[in-house]
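Archive maintenance. Older records in this collection stored only the sequence; we are now back-filling the structure field for every entry so that each record is complete. The fields below show one back-filled record exactly as it appears after the update. Entries are processed alphabetically, and 1-acyl-sn-glycerol-3-phosphate acyltransferase is next in the queue.

ARCHIVE ENTRY
Title: 1-acyl-sn-glycerol-3-phosphate acyltransferase
Organism field: Carboxydocella sporoproducens DSM 16521
Length field: 194
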Amino acid sequence: MDFYQFARMLCRSYLRFVRCWKVEGEKNLPVEGPVIIAANHVSNLDPVVVGCAFDRKVSYLAKEELFQVPVLSWIIRHLGAFPVKRGTGDRGAIRAALDVLEKGDCFGIFPEGTRSKDGNLQQPKLGVAMLAAKTGAPVLPVALINTQRLLAPITVRVGQVIKPPWPAGSKVSKEELEAFAQQIMAEIKRLREK
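Back-filled structure field:
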């Protein structure tokens, strides 16, 4: 058992016994091949919840400030996180995400780019659509419910994969990327309100 599996086992126990979580639709995650898991973001707990909802390892980008805390840096690196300089179009972080997907693994992303302060869905950034356009990886929409509420039961609702409307590596306009990102957020919203 590696560190990721051990940490997931501990976190699943916490989620099951303390937060009484339930996961709906977890079988919608493809068992192999690249996939982008796109979820709403309202809590620091969200990456942990998404990582625990699936049996496949999920890698993430995390703000670079987290990697400046020695013990935390070691933990999140071993959980598959990569640092990102937010607001800069960090090419190294984008390359790390592309590498994960090109290896056929899962990459988790919060399309809003940051946590929602009020719990409402925010406008998506283009990152999720850009990764899908470059790699051809399908996007799995996920709605996280109550992760921001202390001790409230958590629900994770997993939708059906959404395939990008273009072949991998296609030249795609900003408008097309925006439309695809909006489609993903609309599905997350639908899952949240279900």
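Update note: The radius of gyration is 16 Å. The longest strand covers residues 139-145.
Entry marked complete.
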